[in-house]
Specification:
Blueprint lengths: L8 E10 L2 E11 L4 E5 L6 H8 L7 E6 L2 E3 L4 H6 L2 E4 L11 H5 L15 H14 L15 H14 L4 E5 L7 H15 L4 E5 L4 H6 L2 E6 L2 E7 L5 H9 L17 E10 L3 E9 L3 E6 L5 H8 L7 E6 L2 E3 L4 H6 L2 E4 L3 H5 L6 H6 L7 E2 L2 E2 L1 H14 L16 H13 L5 E5 L7 H16 L3 E5 L3 H7 L2 E6 L2 E7 L5 H8 L9
Helix pairs in contact: 4-5
The structure holds adenosine-5'-triphosphate and magnesium ion (MG).
């Protein structure tokens, strides 16, 4: 048994500089045995960088790290793993075309006796056992590419558990999970808390801190602000320390006059995904589309956007029927889709912030045949300012931005199009509370201009806070519609779990 007089982990005056950015300025972090230590801060505050240093993925410029009282040098991910550190990255690290089992045991595959041959039977069996721990019921032979984002997240967690780590870092695990999966994750975390290990938990959903956290460390702009027992600080205290000012309104909802119908869908059906989905969205309103992960929300959005074919159903834009067979045709009809999987579909990581911003509407920054670079610069500077995108300049490549700031660039890209209908799939995932409010204000500007917004979201407070009407899906069907006035968390959950049905054919 380790001596519990020591701290499990101590990081001291950690400093890290990137070109043009002081990402960490003498930051410290302590982790006790059996503790869930939350790490919070705005997008770009330095949370992921601090954890990447611990995981050996990024070298530090200065600082010291102690594990169980002993000073350690961490120079590679392999070494970090040997020291019992396991990190679940914000950007997933799984290899898409390998199976779930192969991903879990990558580099540690069980061998047949002393031979170099992989013992597949045992690997599949062991993989099944760890998947059981996280409550994921899928065939371990499935290639990871076929899994949903939430399922991939659970595989990452299963992998960390199988390494038998002492220090587990979770970088925004909840950003991709909905209530049911989150409950499983919290159950797992509570079980782990009883053992001789520690968990560092990064999240932008502050309510979670009170559910599972013991202490919280707040960072701002690469600086250490403080560490507190969760029970000693309120949500408002934490927000104030994170953003450095009082946040006036989290959900700045403005009710606009409902304009003409922009989008109507009738009996949309895609076999195996959703059935008979009918609804409309008018100019000036935000319609929420919610439900549990796997209910078919993203699939409906993809089909309207022409990314997946429909088996049946009609789509009307501004009252006339349209045929949408590809995203190009959807964009032509004024429909934009901000996807939940920004890494694969939203951003070109090797391009700059400036280039990404105008990508979906190059016409607006092109004069004759030439790209009007000064105009492009003006536009992207405006968005960087409005959305508070933390970047040393608009010429930074998207790859180097923090996760939340990448999301803001994707958002800027769609805000810059002439879309009349915008579909946002989990638009505020991984975005800090201050920036969320800014994004909602921009949505208000769009609504005022007559845009219609369909917002897919699993975060009920934001659905309740920002939507004019709320559609709830359950197992591929619409289970009901709620008006802003009548909607509550309980009513949404009852519909989402199939407990009741309302107002639908
Ligand atoms: N490889 C890199 N090259 C240049 N700058 C980087 C690199 N990685 C991170 N940064 C910068 O360091 C700062 C801290 O980023 P980090 O990813 O640690 O933020 P974060 O707190 O995790 O934010 P988020 O909540 O958005 O995930 C940001 O300004 C980011 O742009
Ligand atoms: Mg991060």
């Amino acid at each position: 048994m380790p001596s519990h007089d020591n701290l499990l982990l101590e990081m001291k005056h950690i400093t890290k500089r990137f070109p043009g950015v002081l990402a960490l300025d003498k930051v410290k972090l302590e982790l006790r045995y059996g503790e869930v230590h939350c790490l919070v801060g705005e997008n770009g505050a330095g949370k992921s960088t601090l954890m990447k240093i611990l995981a050996g993925a990024v070298p530090m410029d200065d600082g010291e790290i102690y594990i169980e009282g002993k000073k350690v040098e961490i120079t590679s991910p392999f070494q970090a793993q040997q020291l019992g550190i396991s990190m679940i990255y914000q950007e997933f690290n799984l290899i898409p075309y390998l199976s779930v089992a192969e991903n879990i045991f990558l580099g540690r595959e069980p061998k047949k006796g002393k031979t170099p041959f992989i013992d597949w039977k045992r690997m599949y069996k062991d993989a099944e056992d760890v998947l059981n721990l996280v409550g994921l019921k899928i065939d371990v032979r499935t290639p990871v590419v076929e899994l949903s984002v939430a399922q991939q997240q659970m595989v990452e967690i299963a992998k960390a558990l199988s390494i038998k780590a002492k220090i587990i870092v979770m970088d925004e695990p909840s950003a991709t999970l909905t209530d049911h999966e989150l409950k499983t994750l919290f159950d797992i975390i509570r079980t782990l808390r009883r053992q001789d290990l520690g968990i560092i938990y990064i999240s932008h959903r502050l309510e979670e801190l009170y559910e599972i956290g013991n202490r919280v460390t707040v960072m701002r702009d690469g600086q250490y602000i403080g560490t507190f027992e969760i029970c000693d600080v309120t949500r408002e205290d934490i927000i104030r320390m994170m953003v450095g000012r009082e946040l006036t309104e989290e959900y700045p909802k403005v009710i606009f006059k409902r304009g003409p119908e922009r989008l109507r869908v009738e009996n949309l059906t895609r076999k195996g995904a959703f059935e008979n989905i009918s609804f409309s969205v008018h100019a000036g309103e935000i319609v929420g589309l919610t439900g549990l992960v796997g209910a078919g929300r993203t699939e409906v959005a993809r089909a309207i956007f022409g990314a997946d074919p429909l088996d049946k159903g009609k789509i009307y834009v501004d009252g006339s029927e349209v045929k949408i067979r590809s995203p190009q045709e959807a964009i032509y009809h004024g429909i934009g889709l901000l996807t939940e999987d920004r890494k694969n579909q939203g951003l070109v990581l090797s391009m700059t912030v400036r280039e990404n911003t105008t990508l979906a509407n190059l016409k607006r920054v092109t004069k004759w045949l030439f790209l009007n670079i000064p105009e492009e610069k003006r536009v992207s500077k405006k968005f960087v300012e409005e959305l508070q995108i933390r970047t040393p300049s608009i010429e930074q490549i998207a790859q180097n931005l923090s996760g939340g700031n990448q999301q803001k660039v994707v958002l800027a890209k769609w805000l810059f199009t002439n879309s009349k209908i915008l579909i946002f799939d989990e638009p505020t995932r991984g975005i800090d509370v201050g920036a969320k409010a800014e994004i909602f204000k921009l949505m208000n500007q769009l609504l005022e201009r007559g845009v219609a917004i369909l917002m897919i979201s699993s975060e009920l407070p934001e659905v309740l806070g920002m939507c004019d009407r709320i559609l709830v899906m359950h197992e591929g069907r619409l289970a009901g519609e709620l008006s802003r006035e009548e909607a509550t968390q309980e009513k949404i959950m009852q519909l989402a779990t199939g407990y009741i049905k309302k107002n639908v054919a």
